[in-house]
Amino acid sequence: MKPKVTMTAWNQNDDYVVTAVNNHLLKVWNSRTGQLLHDLVGHADEVFVLETHPFDSRIMLSAGHDGNIFIWDITKGTKTKHYFNMIEGQGHGAVFDCKFSPDGQHFACTDSHGHLLIFGFGCSKPYEKIPDQMFFHTDYRPLIRDSNNYVLDEQTQQAPHLMPPPFLVDVDGNPHPTKYQRLVPGRENCADEHLIPQLGYVATSDGEVVEQVIGQQTVDQEEQNLEPSVLDGMIRQLQLEQDQRNGADQESASGDPQGGEGTPRRG
């Protein structure tokens, strides 16, 4: 196998350069002389993550598709800590990205199964408040392109960046309680009744009917069967008036090009 470099990183003070090679080795080089100092052995698959510590020039983090995460002392060429990302019932999860916190006391990783892994000092109790599975209900919605080749959400025919803030759901599409919905930017100050998503049934390409979050409703509208809000009616009225104006403009543009000198038409 011809060796190929998959990732390169400089340490915090630029004294060392670490390269990840596709033979699963990490190599530590003197950045000034180009001398090879250490071969770091431990990974069993390709490495695409090399992260230097924000202020400790000795520390480098590596992670790869083998599910291994290593903390290395690159000055000595030794491993300091090791974690293997084993997922119960599914084998290991390849680690795709890692970042240190600014204070260097924590680092976070993401894997191929959609997990966010947080490592560091202290108690994990604050993180236990957050559900294990968090997705936006729009994450896997199909997209289409309009006549101008702009991307639109297939269901609402809206540009994705103009759509309302999405709802948080679990892996099966079930909405989380309202206290979690406020974690979504744009929903921080919403009242509880505006954080209850509306569920509908959508047919997939395979013909299977699945339950999906399709919009937003309020408790009052649901319980009292009220008409949609006044704001919705105003938006529809403005759209109707705009359509009528566009139609009138098209009619005037399609009139007699000679300035109306022909036979007058009966009204």
UniProtKB/TrEMBL annotation:
Keywords: Repeat, WD repeat. InterPro entries: Bromo_WD_repeat (IPR052060), WD40/YVTN_repeat-like_dom_sf (IPR015943), WD40_repeat_CS (IPR019775), WD40_repeat_dom_sf (IPR036322), WD40_rpt (IPR001680). Gene3D superfamilies: YVTN repeat-like/Quinoprotein amine dehydrogenase. One of its GO terms (biological process) is regulation of cell shape. It holds the Pfam family WD40. It comes from the Eukaryota. Residues 238-267 are annotated as: Disordered. One of its GO terms (cellular component) is nucleus. SUPFAM superfamilies: WD40 repeat-like. SMART domains: WD40 (SM00320). WD repeats lie at residues 1-39, 40-82. Residues 257-267 have a biased composition (Gly residues). This is BRWD1 protein. The lineage of its organism: Eukaryota, Metazoa, Chordata, Craniata, Vertebrata.
